[in-house]
Amino acid sequence: QVQFVESGGGLVQPGGALRLSCVASTDISSFLPVNWYRQAPGKQRSWVASITPKGVSDYATSVKGRFTISRDNAKNTVTLQMTSLEPEDTAVYYCQTLGSTWGQGTQVTVSS
After folding, report:
1. How high is the pLDDT of residue 13?
2. Looking at the chain, which runs of residues are DSSP E strands?
3. What is the pLDDT at residue 73?
4. Among 47, 63, 73, 105, fewest CB within 10 Å belongs to which?
5. Which helix (DSSP H) or strand (DSSP E) does residue 101 occupy?
6. How far apart, in whole angstroms, are the C-alpha atoms of residue 14 and residue 109?
7. CA 93 to CA 27: how far, in whole Å?
8. In angstroms, what CA-CA distances link 11 with 20, 55, 91?
9. Burial of 56 by CB count in 10 Å (0-12 exposed, 13-18 middle, 19+ buried)?
10. Taking the CB of residue 17, how many other CB atoms lie within 10 A of it?
11. What per-residue confidence (pLDDT) applies to 29?
12. How far apart are CA 61 and CA 20, in angstroms?
């Protein structure tokens, strides 16, 4: 079963940027799309972005134009570059793919 380890979260001011990474426990080069999800306090987990093995990406409307997802299959790593962060982006961020288990996630807090 695939597991991801997420990292890169932290506290950032509104308008700032963060770069999140998740490393898979196994080869992801032939996987179905890898997704980033997030869960804000008191809310359900929601989809943020996805990327196919060939690098085709898709984004939730709320982050389109601000977030960029990328993957390095050789390093089993998927990255989420986040810019123009807003307080509404505060959440725990997780990677996921078909058949994976949820990891610990990485906390992103956007606050002045």
Report:
1. 98
2. 4-7, 10-12, 18-24, 34-39, 46-51, 57-59, 67-72, 77-82, 91-96, 106-110
3. 87
4. 47
5. none
6. 9
7. 21
8. 13, 29, 11
9. exposed
10. 11
11. 75
12. 19
